Every structure is written in structure tokens, then in C-alpha cells.
Amino acid sequence: MTYPSISNPVHQSLQTVFDPQLNSRARRFLRSAKADSTLNAYEADTRIFVYWCQLQQLDPLQTTHHDIMNFLADQADGILADWVWLDKREGKGELRNGEPRKPATLVRRLAGIRYAFKQKGIHPMPTEHAEIKEMMRGIVRLGDNRKRKTGALTLQPLTQVLDEIDTSNLAGLRDHTLLLLMFSGALRRSEAARIEVSDLDFVGQGIRLRLKPSKHQLHETEIALIPGRHHCPVSALRRWLQKSRINEGPLFRRMNRWGQLMPDPLGPQGINLMIKRRTGQVIDSLYVSGHSLRRGFITSAVTAGKPMNKIIEVTRHKDMRTLQEYFDDAHKFSDHALDGLL
């Protein structure tokens, strides 16, 4: 079911989030307090809330906690939960019914609304009402809250996927290079989406890859990529740059239906869908996501006996406990306490 398209909503003020009285420099510093990916998610969540309010003939700046509870209930059931752009330049889009939203998505929706209210100086904030917190507990309890663990795209299945990709066309070459780079650098999809040509420094031993600051890494970091014997990320990147003729700007870009490169980058969601599509064409027994290549590198390195400090040079982990889980899992059957007892 779709609803009439809406453009330029009356209460656009909530979507702008930051006070218009702030100058551009103040807004820039305020915006830098949170990662771009977080603010983009908040903006999308707030947009859905604003348009939902307009369809309910509500002022989003004057909503009560009951209104927010009704909004969350609709989202949990998939009612008016999908936003579709009809004309992004004109700001025209519509809300549609879709799949029920997971509790984690609802928590983020609520956080986005709360953040917008906070920036607007709304007090008391209806998002903090005790009934909303109680309702969220109910949504979590009724929903399937079991976490499905992302599968690790380790060396063997990754090799199968890479070998099946036709690299004679730009789409195949792009995906082949991107998959190989994400594995070799243990990259998150958000990191891969932001890589530009200027971030690559080809040196004698391989490539120095600069990674921009993110919510995971507050400062710019650099990792080394070395040549591989069977699948080489260094050679793959050289070939991609040569064939694509990309000299500056985003390294990995979207493509239109005719296989032509677009100027804008392939975003995190596009990368996620590409990984699922390419993997699904070869392996249907593995649950993959944008994190599968990072997990795959760590699992492969641990299994191969690489020391933790060298793995961290690539993964940039700050919490050793997270990485220790991989070591524990890899050695679960080694020197087992039951060995020799039966």
C-alpha cells in the first residue's frame, strides 16, 4: 500500500536538526561530534517520523509520548515504515508499508527523534517517557530477538566467489577488486565506501591505504596491503584503476543499468547487497553481510597462526576481548580438557 507523495513538509524544521541560527562553522563542529553514518541514519529516521506525523495531521514538534508510541507500533508492524524517493532533487517521496522493523531499528529510530528534539531544545522530551521504555521492552520480547551471527567469508569460500566473477566487464572487475580489498584490509563496508583514489599510495612493497576517521576510528589510520600469491589486491587495484580510468574521487562507484560508471560512490548498503549477491551465486549455505569479509580475514589469520599484534595492525581493534573471541573459537578443539579422559 502506498500513500500520496509529499514534498516540502510543513514541519521541515525538525528534519534540519541543527538550529538555523547557528553559522556554518558552528554547525560543522556540532556535526563532527557524531559520525557521518550515525547522523545520516538519524536524518533518515527523522524524515520518516516527520512524514508519518504529517499523514496523521500532527505537528512533530508538538507530539506527545502517545504519538511516539503509535509511531513505533506502526514501524514494528511495518506500517508506513519504508521511505521511497520519487524525486530526490525536488524532495518528493512517499511512505509505504513494508517489512516489520527489528527492535534494533526501532531503538535507532527513537534515538534519531530524541537527537532532533534535543537540538531543537524541546523539554521535557516526550521520548523519555516511562511508557515508551516499557513499550520497547514489549517489542523486544515479542520480536525474534535472537542474533543471527554473520558468517565469516574465509579464504576458501572467498576464493570460490572470486573465481566465479567475470572480470572482463567493469561491474565484475569492480566487485572482484572490492571483495579482495575488503578481505585483505579487514575493512568495514562504511570504510570501503569512503575510499578515494588519493587514499592509495603505491610503494615498492605494496600499497599504503589511508582510512578516514569514522565512528570506529576517531583518527585517520593507515594499513599496509601486500601482494598475494593466488589473489593479489595490489594487482587488482592497479587493474581496476587502469580499466575504469578513475583518476580521482571515489574509488568504487555505482553503475547504471547499462554498466556505465556513475560519479557517485557505491555506498555501504550497495556494498552489502553486492556481497550478498555475489556470494549467493556460489554459496547458498552461508549467511553473509557487509561484515563477513572482515570476519573472514580475522578467522583466516587466526587459523593460520598469525600473532595477535600483527592481526591488530590490519584490523585496528581497540578492545582485545573482541579479538580474543576469534582465538578462543579457533582453538576450541585444541588441547581439549576432555582429551584422554574417555
TrEMBL record:
Domain Tyr recombinase residue range list: 148-342
**What keywords are assigned to this protein?**
DNA integration, DNA recombination, DNA-binding
CDD domains, sorted: INT_Cre_C
SUPFAM superfamilies per record: DNA breaking-rejoining enzymes, lambda integrase-like, N-terminal domain
Report the GO molecular function annotations: DNA binding
Q: Which residues form the Core-binding (CB) domain?
A: 20-121
Highest taxon listed in the record's lineage = Bacteria
Q: Which GO terms describe its biological process?
A: DNA integration; DNA recombination
The protein's name is: Recombinase
